[in-house]
Specification:
Blueprint: H1 2-18, E1 20-21, E2 25-27, E3 30-32, E4 43-45, H2 48-54, E5 55-57, E6 73-79, E7 83-97, E8 100-117, E9 120-126, E10 134-139
Parallel strand pairs: 8-10
Antiparallel strand pairs: 1-7, 2-9, 3-5, 4-6, 6-9, 7-8
Length: about 140
Amino acid sequence: MKAKALAAAFIAATLTACTGSVNYREASGYFFKNNQPCPKDILVITNKADLERHFGYATTMSQRPTEVDFSKEAVLAIVLPETDLSTDIGIKGITSKQGSLTVNYKVNTGAKNSYTIQPMRMIVVDKSTLQNKTVTAKDN
């Protein structure tokens, strides 16, 4: 009986270690450069050169871009095609399963504008969460 209980506890602990939510923080103060093609998948950025290739700094007097320490952190970015609709990308969470990391998000669209925007959302995660994982994004 004790052996079965120990085995069940071990399996539950192993499953918990293999599946879980991932901590992140949202990044702001950037814009997607219009000389870059719209990515089909989530962008995984692990160094400053790649960040600066894809994004510009939207610095204002009151707001500076979110700092990223690329020695410990990485950026995940969801970029959508240009649109004339008000659009928000809401991050619902990040889940980690053995071999994969999934960013769950929801796109909310609103009124039509007289101009176009390129919706995007950037988040910062610990680089260690990306090790040996395939990163995907899921709109749900």
